[in-house]
Write a structure and sequence with these properties.
Length: 429
């Protein structure tokens, strides 16, 4: 018995050390992975409370007689907002804590990459605090503020997409190879063919022949016309454009149009192919959740690591600490060759090597996750108008948010093309 107990204790201790070592390894490689996981926990918790908490509580007899029983509607809106509010408070607090961090030698950098157990406790405490103690008025105010924050997140998402397409185009052109030039042309061609074919299906799916669906026709025609305009402006001789970004943005605008039309209420007569889909299947629901999660996490992670418009400003030379002259491997080799006689010099060199500048703006990275928390709150509550609990983001506000996003994306891309002509004295590259 004693041997079994000792073996179990050792196994548990080894398992804990292994988990701790794995978490430490992940945080050293990329702290972004861990924060994406924390954000995923918020989404899953909000979803579980919205769809499964009340059916379970309803089966408990004494819950219905409890004077402060929350009720089904509370879980559909308040529970989601409260969980997302807790996540928002955590990330906005980290953004304030990390404001102004420029070097990895800053003691706050360890809070970004380490102390995961403490941060998990803080996140859990904020979530429980928001679920139990906050009055409804504060949560309702957060819900209204989330509409504005979600718009900012969509703006970040658009800028990230533009940044990605431009970097993609520049990277392939920089190879100065006929193969990569042909690859650029091929990808552009495929994107435009997909755009036109997809638009044709949208006309079929969301414009039943027996219905008056002028609004849907307007949305589809506008998205298709924008794609053609992108190509026309990009190939203009006075514009420093390329077909690859134009084709990618055109395809994205058609996708946004489809996403908007798919968000129309199921009782709308022009829903077409989805007219008889009264309840979304479990597989479709899970797929929608996964797509939304991937989109949110990619935008947040990409925005926090962009090397162009989100890079930390270069510090002034007089304010910069001693820059590293040796890499970590060079320091280790130097230590092996020098022996114990130069131990002091080795530690001094190693100390100076810690003054690497951070590779992205920590505070902005957390701010993007805070805005993403607002965005998820709006998605799971139908932008403040919850409908069918088995559907995600089905409401008229969702439709207009996506259509507005499509128009703003188009305007932003066109401005990126014509800005050097309108403001020739400014350097845009």
């Amino acid at each position: 018995m004693w041997g079994t107990s000792c073996l179990a204790s050792c196994s548990a201790a080894c398992a804990c050390q292994a988990c701790k070592g794995l978490a430490s390894s992940i945080s050293r490689r990329s702290a972004r992975i861990a924060y994406c996981g924390l954000h995923t926990l918020s989404l899953l918790l909000a979803w579980m409370l919205r769809d499964h908490a009340w059916p379970i509580l309803e089966k408990i007899p004494w819950i219905n007689h409890f004077p402060y029983s929350p009720g089904k509607d509370w879980f559909a809106t308040q529970a989601v907002l409260r969980v997302c509010f807790g996540s928002f408070l955590f990330f906005i607090g980290m953004a304030l804590l990390m404001f102004g961090v420029k070097y990895q030698s800053d003691h706050r950098d360890f809070w970004h990459r380490g102390n995961w157990m403490i941060k998990l406790i803080i996140w859990s405490g904020l979530t429980v605090l928001c679920l139990i103690l906050l009055p409804n008025d504060i949560v309702d105010a957060y819900g209204k503020l989330s509409r504005f924050g979600s718009g900012l997140f969509l703006l970040v998402q658009m800028v990230v997409l533009l940044d990605f397409t431009y970097n993609w185009n520049v990277a392939w052109i920089a190879k100065e190879s006929q193969f990569w030039y042909n690859a650029l042309l091929a990808v552009s061609f495929v994107c435009y063919i997909t755009t036109f074919v997809f638009s044709g299906y949208l006309y079929k799916w969301f414009n039943p022949a027996y219905q008056d669906c002028e609004l849907n026709l307007f949305f589809i025609t506008t998205s298709l016309s924008l794609g053609i305009a992108f190509a026309a402006i990009s190939v203009h001789p006075q514009v420093n454009g390329s077909l690859l970004p134009a084709s990618v943005i055109a395809l994205y605008c058609v996708y946004l149009c489809y996403s908007a039309l798919s968000s129309e209420p199921r009782d709308y007569e022009c829903i077409g192919v989805l007219k008889h889909a009264e309840v979304v299947s479990t597989n479709t629901l899970v797929m929608g959740m996964a797509t939304t999660l991937i989109s949110v996490i990619y935008s947040a992670a990409r925005a926090g690591s962009s090397t162009t418009f989100l890079s930390p400003p270069a510090p002034r030379e007089e304010d910069a600490p001693l820059q590293p002259l040796l890499s970590r491997r060079d320091l280790e080799n130097s230590h092996k060759l020098s022996g114990t006689g130069s131990e002091h010099n080795f530690h001094e060199a190693k100390k100076s090597s810690q003054h690497y500048p951070v590779t992205y703006v920590y505070s902005f990275f957390y701010l993007v996750f805070a805005l993403a928390s607002m965005y998820l709150a709006m998605l799971l509550t139908g932008w403040g108008n919850p409908g069918d609990k088995d559907a995600i983001d089905i409401s008229w506000p969702s439709v207009w948010v996506r259509i507005g996003t499509m128009w703003f994306t188009a305007a932003l891309y066109i401005w990126s093309l014509i800005a050097p002509l309108v403001l020739p004295d400014r350097d845009f590259f």
